[in-house]
Amino acid sequence: MAPPKTAGQTRGTILGAVQSGLVTFTLRAAPLPSGITNFLSANAATLKRLQRDRRSGKADDDADVASSDAAPEGSAVVSVEEFWPKLEELLKEAGRDWAGLADQVWAFGPRRVGPNLLVDKTAGASRSCVLLSPSPSSLSLARSG
């Protein structure tokens, strides 16, 4: 296997800067564990529902979610209310590198519902994914703003 492209960093890490070093950033790409990928694939309808509810400015109490015909075997479709706790549980089971990442999710992809995560691990970042945040306070903020 070829050595990492960025010396002194873990594989998949890229360091960058813009504006002559005024802003620096670090990006890291890592494959998701298969259990998380299967869960996100199976719950694409739930993610769509979360986004639809967010766009309409309402927190729908109806927990019915259309089942996915393409759900991977062994993956259960969960309701909107169960989505975040189940994702947190799966991330915790995946190991210490993944534990706690549910609070730092910015986006899902591709097309906002796929089995990829964009995560913000900067200090102080919490529930960055306001679009899909499960907390009632963020839903009320979303309605007012």
Helix content: 25-40%
In the predicted model, the low-confidence regions spanning at least 5 consecutive residues are 60-72, 134-145
> How far is it from the N-terminal to the C-terminal residue, by CA?
50 Å
Number of strands: 4
Give the tally of structural domains.
Answer: 2
Strand content: 5-15%
Order of helices and strands: EEHHHEEH
Q: pLDDT average, as an integer?
A: 75
Describe the structure.
The structure is a single chain. This protein has 145 residues and is α+β, with helices and mostly antiparallel strands. The chain has 2 domains: 1-30, no CATH class; 32-144, no CATH class. The chain has 4 helices and 4 strands; from the N terminus they run ββαααββα. The strands form 2 sheets. Strands 1-2 form a two-stranded antiparallel ribbon. It has a two-stranded antiparallel ribbon with strand order 3-4. A hairpin with a 6-residue loop joins β3 (105-109) and β4 (116-119). The radius of gyration is 17 Å and the shape is globular.
What structural keywords apply?
4 helices, two-stranded antiparallel ribbon, globular, alpha+beta, 4 strands
List the helices and strands and how they pair.
Blueprint: E1 13-18, E2 23-28, H1 34-42, H2 44-56, H3 80-93, E3 105-109, E4 116-119, H4 136-144
Antiparallel strand pairs: 1-2, 3-4
